[in-house]
Amino acid sequence: MKDFLQFKDVSYFYQTKENEVQALDKVNFSVDEEEFASLVGPSGCGKTTILSLTAGLLEPSSGQILLQGSPIKKNDSRIGYMFQRDHLFEWRSIWQNIKLGLEVQKKNKDEKSLAFADELLRKYDLYNFKNKKPRQLSGGMRQRVALIRTLVLKPALLLLDEPFSALDFQTRLKVCDDVYDIIKQEKKTALLVTHDISEALSMSNKVIILSSRPASTKKIVRLNFSGDTPLKKREAENFGKHFEMIWRNLT
């Protein structure tokens, strides 16, 4: 589906004690179905605000946000959110953590949902760890658990808020490959916020560059690198040229 997610002239203001602040100024972009898009921009420009608006946690001051052609609602079940930290509960097993969303939605006894959770654990090499506690897993494995916990709820759109920022560089490269592979295999549409230009380039079909605050859409870059993993895409001949172009648009 074309224009699976649409931002149409979206502006957002918030109130401080002193005055009203504009965070976004008529932001426009779209993401097609099964596309992986990234948002980059100067620090503090409003990237996370865009994710919060997309998740239905905030409402736009003006403009429209559409998912599958209809407005996004508060606590919209079509949307899954993966945070900077994995937010796994240390006192619960991996299986209990993965079922958390199902419990919230009162689906923890639904046989189809539980079978799907079990299938995802087996498919992505975590089944043997289902009875372990999060502290017994590596950082990369914890992120896979966090992603599977989100996927169990079968969201149409995945929002990724710098999910690799807490990992060391080597682990980060491996987890980028793992998460990218899972999202592609599950045929999900994804929107990633990151400060890392290389990460955005290697994982995305499209990079949306935002201006400084109040953020507007400065440039949209479509990508088609050779390589079937983010790590391989970093070796593409024109990767450096795209990196420099995006970096110049951020300064």
List keywords for this structure.
251 residues; alpha/beta; Rossmann fold; 2 domains; 6-stranded mixed beta sheet; 9 helices
Q: Topology, please?
A:
Blueprint: E1 5-15, E2 20-31, E3 36-40, H1 47-54, E4 62-67, E5 70-71, E6 79-82, H2 94-98, H3 100-104, H4 111-123, H5 139-151, E7 157-161, H6 169-185, E8 189-193, H7 197-203, E9 206-210, E10 217-222, H8 230-233, H9 239-250
Parallel strand pairs: 3-8, 3-9, 6-7, 7-8
Antiparallel strand pairs: 1-2, 1-4, 4-5, 9-10
Helix pairs in contact: 5-6, 7-9
Question: Explain this structure to me?
Answer:
It is a single chain. This protein has two domains: 5-78 and 155-250, Rossmann fold, CATH 3.40.50; 88-154, no CATH class. The chain is 33% helix and 24% strand. It contains nine helices and ten strands. The strands form two sheets. A six-stranded mixed β-sheet has the order 6-7-8-3-9-10, sandwiched between helices. It has a four-stranded antiparallel β-sheet with strand order 2-1-4-5, covered by helices on one side. α6 links the parallel β7 (157-161) and β8 (189-193). α5 runs parallel beside α6 and α7 (197-203) packs across α9. The model has no long low-confidence stretch (mean pLDDT 92).
Strand order of the largest sheet: 6-7-8-3-9-10
Largest sheet: 6 strands, mixed
How much beta, percentage-wise?
15-25%
The chain-level mean pLDDT equals: 92
The CATH first-level class of the largest domain comes to Alpha Beta
Under the CATH scheme, which architecture of the largest domain would be assigned?
A: 3-Layer(aba) Sandwich
CATH fold descriptor of the largest domain: Rossmann fold
Compute the number of helices. 9
Number of domains: 2
Annotation, overall tally of beta strands = 10
Classify the helix fraction into a percent range: 25-40%
Pairing-aware structural class of the strands and helices? alpha/beta
Runs in which pLDDT lies below 50 for 5 or more consecutive residues are none
Give the end-to-end Cα distance, rounded to a whole number of Å.
34 Å
**CATH homologous superfamily classification of the largest domain:** P-loop containing nucleotide triphosphate hydrolases
What is the alpha-carbon Rg in Å?
18 Å
Question: What string, H for helix and E for strand, traces the elements in order?
Answer: EEEHEEEHHHHEHEHEEHH
* Mass-distribution shape: globular
